[in-house]
Design a protein that fits this description.
Helices cover 38% and strands 17% of the residues. It has 378 residues and is of the alpha/beta class.
Length: 378
């Protein structure tokens, strides 16, 4: 890719969106890295209250239009208009497209002659029911049958070996799938430095997540309630926000732990890392993850993660018994959390190993992997 290349990114949300998460961060950090290397990068995504129609961010041109569902046709119409020399991208000809499939893709392959890479963090079979019976059936049909058929000649990009295996189960040829794991930013300076663990005060659990049903933050509340019933002095920090937040606050009240839970909502990176730095254990009770970026962020602070083996992606980001612990149900999650809180030496060793592993990840190396995929196509 000696000549400047027009890279088009398609994603239904961006990181500033109230429901933006790890998959959006992956795409934008890779886009920023490639823009710094001379590629011309454009991101088409949805609008949200207070968002700008267009802006430049970290060298990436961001154009927004449409909402949760209408972002898909709006993006395709923008590309069709561009081919006709009209609209916001009049005359625009991408060299390559990364089409993010968050359940459903944009199907950019239908409106562009450029090669298309389909970015899939994980399959959404477990998440579709929350959309309602009709939309769930339609969504899973598109994800499991229609998309693999339309993209039968496309390259796929995913973030973990379990996610690659899920794509193979949907009929995608393994040789068309490349796994490029997510990176991690350097830890920002935290005022006052890292607090001393084991000092007087309660032991601290933390969850960093979008607050949506499939993240199962209720399970962390149940763990906290079990620990409190055992007479332990434990508190929980919940970092993140989402449309499920009111239900979680109500669940904390029902569980009798509202006074021991702090719902921080959306926070900046420095605040997030300050909260991670003072945690003893990071809980990730999600039903499904593609990779689990926050596992590595917690590891930067030598904080081990406990999560579910059935989540798929956590079996890649957590080395069970080495950098964290994988369990099979909420009862085991509570028992494993109690065991780690009672064993500071084991907790420290898991954290040390996790921190050493986290040192091997960076967005630069992630961008290297993505750039190799794009170079092969071009």
């Amino acid at each position: 890719m000696n000549e400047p290349t027009e890279l088009l990114l398609l994603c239904w949300r961006d990181t500033d969106h109230p429901q933006g998460g790890g998959s959006e961060r992956y795409l934008e950090r890779v886009g920023a890295e490639l823009a710094a290397r001379g590629l011309r990068v454009t991101l088409l995504t949805a609008r949200y209250p207070g968002s700008a129609r267009s802006e430049w961010r970290d060298g990436v041109r961001v154009l927004r239009a449409g909402g949760r569902l209408t972002v898909y046709p709006r993006a395709l119409l923008t590309l069709l208009a561009a081919r006709a020399g009209r609209g916001r991208l009049a005359g625009y000809r991408p060299s390559v497209v990364i089409d993010t499939q968050n359940g459903v893709p944009f199907f950019a392959r239908l409106v562009t002659r450029a090669p298309v890479v389909v970015l899939v963090h994980h399959c959404h079979r477990e998440q579709w029911p929350v959309a309602g019976p009709l939309l769930a059936r339609l969504g899973w049909l598109i994800e499991s049958r229609l998309s693999p058929r339309i993209h039968r000649g496309s390259r796929y990009l995913t973030v973990s070996a379990p996610s690659a295996a899920e794509l193979v189960d949907l009929g995608v040829d393994r040789e068309r799938i490349t796994v490029v794991r997510g990176g991690v930013d350097p830890v920002p300076a935290v005022p006052g430095g890292r607090p001393e663990r084991g000092a007087a005060g309660p032991q601290r659990l933390i969850v960093v997540s979008r607050l949506v049903p499939h993240k199962q933050v209720e399970h962390a509340l149940q763990v906290l309630a079990r620990l409190r019933e055992q007479g332990r002095e434990v508190v929980l920090d919940v970092v993140g926000d989402g449309w499920w937040a009111p239900q979680l606050r109500a669940a904390a009240v029902r569980a009798g732990v509202a006074g021991q839970v702090s719902f921080h909502g959306h926070v900046d990176e420095r605040t997030k890392h300050a909260l991670l730095a003072r945690a003893d254990v990071h809980l990730m009770p999600s039903a499904k993850e593609g990779w689990g970026l926050v596992v590595i962020e917690a590891a930067q602070h030598a904080v081990p993660t406990l999560g579910y083996r059935s989540s798929a992606g956590l079996t890649d980001s957590i080395v069970d018994g080495v950098t964290g612990v994988l369990v099979d149900d909420p009862g085991q999650l509570a028992a494993a959390t109690a065991a780690l809180l009672d064993d500071p030496d084991r907790r420290s060793e898991l954290g040390r190993q996790a921190q050493a592993r986290a040192a091997g990840y960076s967005w630069e190396s992630t961008a290297d992997g993505v750039q190799r995929v794009l170079a092969d196509l071009l």
